[in-house]
Design brief:
Shape: elongated
Distance between the termini: 13 Å
Strand order of the largest sheet: 1-2-3-4-5
Helix content: 10-25%
Strand content: 5-15%
Order of helices and strands: EEEHEEHEHEEEEHEHHHH
Mean pLDDT: 86
Number of strands: 11
Number of helices: 8
Low-confidence stretches: 139-150
Largest sheet: 5 strands, parallel
């Protein structure tokens, strides 16, 4: 038996598929899969997740708590979880926490590390036509003497108009570009930049700007222009994670340009590019400055990122197709969910 339960308004199989995991379950093994609605630090307070354990009998099933859809830092709630274990007499041998934070393994008996959004984008591949780089249209005018031929090199595409993303947009818009040794102008970078919010009118709809729920846009590509060479990823969070228990949280936003075979820069957590390299992908330090990824301050990281965007635009920088093909193939063959499959396959009946 493989039963999937969503604690709030999540949609089952909304991101990476889960139902196919049933094929890995040994005979006689029963699994209850709980899709956590929010971040782990909310799970004993958030209305959809509060009291989630009281409804289930843990004696005869394995329980997989899926925390991969939002940030996970189990350290912040482990004392509350221990209270729940005592209250409901939970056998921790039957409980598996599934998170995208490898540091979580320090705090629970059974932990599975899964970069769920990597798997989710990988699962799009069979349903999409592969980008053929040699046939992607490119308008190249090194002299930039005709405004009609200026290629839009960048695209930034996101559903929620969060305030920090708006600040990033304003920094790009207001970035001074010197047109001579004595004169400069603002707004010139945006001539080669398509910055798109799906809900631009809903800037004040929630605390940090943006709509309350934009998850149904997570796999939208329909209006992405393939004339763009670069994708500016504006991730969900942009803080510097605690090195002891925090983690760099990557979502589908980071892996979209890889499936589209685009170069990319990431406005997100400190260490986002480093984490991608650890996952086997290549980044682009041979072609532009990626030191923004190492800075602690959000403001300093933003300013350094804008400088890199300016450099790429003014110097007509392009990424070799070989790197874009390499990253696509790494995504296509990645085994991010292998630990999860192996764990399920090795369960024995209770």
């Amino acid at each position: 038996m493989f039963k999937i339960v969503t604690t709030g308004n999540r949609i089952v199989d909304q991101f990476a598929k889960q139902s196919h995991l049933e094929s890995y379950i040994p005979d006689g093994v029963d699994i209850l899969w709980l899709n956590l609605n929010g971040c782990t630090h909310q799970m004993f307070e958030w209305k959809h997740d509060k009291g989630m354990f009281k409804w289930y009998n843990f004696d005869s099933v394995y329980v997989f708590i899926d925390c991969t859809k939002e940030c996970s830092e189990l350290k912040s709630i482990i004392h509350l979880y221990e209270d729940e274990v005592k209250r409901y007499n939970i056998n921790e041998d039957h409980v598996y926490w599934v998170t995208g934070n490898p540091n979580d393994k320090k705090y629970v008996k059974h932990h599975i590390y899964w970069e769920m959004f990597l798997t989710a984008v990988k699962e799009m591949i069979p349903d999409r036509s592969e980008i053929v780089l040699s046939s992607r249209s490119r308008i190249v005018d090194p002299e930039r003497d005709c405004q009609d031929n200026i290629q839009k090199k960048f695209i930034c595409y996101n559903g929620r108009n969060r305030k920090w993303r708006r600040k990033l947009y304003d920094s790009i818009k207001k970035k001074r570009v010197y047109t001579s040794s004595k004169t400069w102008s603002e707004g010139l970078l945006l001539e080669e930049f398509n910055y798109t919010f799906l809900h631009d009118d809903d800037y004040n709809a929630c605390g940090d700007g943006g709509i309350e729920n934009g998850y149904f846009y997570w796999n939208v590509f329909d209006d992405v222009s393939y004339l763009h060479d670069f994708w500016l990823v504006t991730e969900t969070v942009n803080y510097a994670a605690d090195e002891h228990y925090g983690h760099v949280f990557l979502t589908e936003k980071t892996f979209k340009p890889i499936i589209l075979k685009m170069g990319f820069l990431i406005a997100g957590c400190k260490g986002s590019l480093k984490k991608l390299r650890n996952l086997g992908f290549k980044t682009f330090s041979d072609y532009w400055d990626e030191s923004y990824d190492t800075l602690d301050s959000k403001g300093a990281r933003r300013d350094a990122l804008v400088e890199t965007i300016k450099y790429i635009i003014l110097n007509d920088v392009y990424v070799p197709d070989e790197i874009l093909e390499y990253n696509y193939n790494v995504l296509k063959e990645h085994n991010a969910d292998q630990e999860l499959k192996d764990t399920i396959s090795n369960l024995t009946p209770i």
